[in-house]
Design a protein that fits this description.
Number of helices: 9
Distance between the termini: 52 Å
């Protein structure tokens, strides 16, 4: 292959560096499983090892060294669901004109940054969807922007994760909010006051401060959820849907209940997030399921549309990212380069294709996302 990209390497890495540090929230808050030395195709399975929870036992004095408890190392799997690219064509005349002006390298660097930004925003959006649809329960009021008067919902979201037995105290808890919620937060007097907030970063620079152990991040990709049309459903169980139950049988109503919907049951103030849409009379809630038993014929209410701000631990949501697979290991590209940003971990492949008096530069990536631990995710309605 010709070394077309070698002279442009500085612009390529500058573009990756710039985009990797832009205003995204879900990417830095998630676990990044990225490997620039591996390729993957859409539909491939990515594996990651994890260790099960340990059990403790009594100490028994002996002259014989104990065998210990056998350890089982499991594999968790997730699928690569996206193979996407941005293609940048250049003709010889266009390159000549650019060199007579601001220069091809300058324009090329800007185009590379925009291509990477486009793919990064798609990744951010996919993580946002996985996070909120994988949440255990929700706090707040659908349709009402949070933090207009106080920070109560920060504590309430944290409480959901704590009550679930999730992780909150190791410095890897994040809360990702949209610009509307962030603006309300920035306008709170208690945060603008350096004495009460503990610093002047928000007042001087607009920097959102860590709150109650959660790193606050802002994202333009926070999702707006449109609820299903379901109404008038009641629990259909001869006995009771027990505490911890995730599969809920309902009947009597009409319309749809979709993944990500927030539902409540009569006599229970908890707001549950639906994992799987209503089908055959059953819907599935995210773990840990019901916090309070639901009696037979208890009314189920589907909540309103909402903006999906999310609080979650880093281990709860994962991004797997690879370079796209190429048939036989190579194609018609005359040059190729893999770029992995050391800050964000994002992996991009850049390939150059030459045609008749024209060349095309492609920026590509493959990825998949998954919410592993609903217990460590709380939805903050907006």
């Amino acid at each position: 292959m010709a070394n077309i990209l070698t002279d442009l390497a500085a612009d390529i890495y500058k573009a990756a560096d710039t985009v990797g540090r832009e205003q995204v929230g879900f990417i830095p808050a998630s676990t990044i499983n990225a490997n620039g030395s591996e390729t993957a195709a859409k539909g491939d399975t990515v594996r990651a090892a994890y260790t099960r929870s340990a059990t403790a036992g009594d100490i028994a004095e002996s002259m014989t060294i104990p065998e210990g408890t056998d350890q089982t190392i499991d594999n968790k799997t997730m699928s690569i669901t996206k193979a996407r690219s941005v293609q940048i064509p250049w003709t010889g005349e266009e390159m000549l004109h650019m060199n007579n002006g601001s220069g091809f390298e300058t324009a090329y660097g800007d185009q590379l940054a925009q291509a990477m930004r486009t793919l990064t925003n798609e990744v951010e959006g996919d993580l946002a969807s996985a996070a909120y649809q994988g949440a255990s329960r929700a706090v707040g009021t659908a349709g009402t922007t949070p933090f207009s008067a106080n920070l109560d919902l920060v504590a309430e979201g944290r409480q959901i994760i704590v009550d679930n037995g999730g992780l909150v105290g190791d410095g890897r808890l994040s809360m990702v909010i949209n610009s509307s919620a962030a603006t309300k937060m920035r306008n709170l007097t208690q945060l603008q006051n350096a004495d009460s907030s503990g610093g002047s970063e928000l007042l001087r620079n607009g920097t959102l401060l860590n709150l109650q152990g959660a790193m606050v991040k802002e994202s333009a990709q926070v999702k707006a959820h449109t609820k299903g049309t379901g109404a008038n459903y009641v629990v259909n169980n001869a006995a009771t849907e027990l505490i911890g139950q995730t599969v809920i049988t309902v009947d009597g109503g009409t319309g749809t209940v979709v993944a990500g919907d927030c539902v409540t049951f009569a006599g229970d103030t908890n707001i549950y997030v639906v994992q799987s849409a209503l089908a055959g009379g059953d819907l599935v809630l995210n773990s840990k399921g019901l916090i309070q038993a639901a009696a037979n014929d208890a009314a189920m209410t589907v909540g309103n549309d909402f903006a999906a701000n999310v609080m979650f631990h880093q281990s709860a949501v994962e991004l797997a990212m690879r370079a796209p697979a190429v048939a036989g290991g190579s194609d018609a590209a005359v040059d190729a380069m893999l770029v992995q940003d050391p800050f964000s971990g994002l992996v991009f492949e850049i390939r150059v294709y030459k045609g008749y008096r024209k060349q095309m530069i492609e920026v590509a990536a493959t990825w998949g996302v998954k919410a592993w631990k609903s217990e460590n995710i709380a939805l903050i309605l907006g």
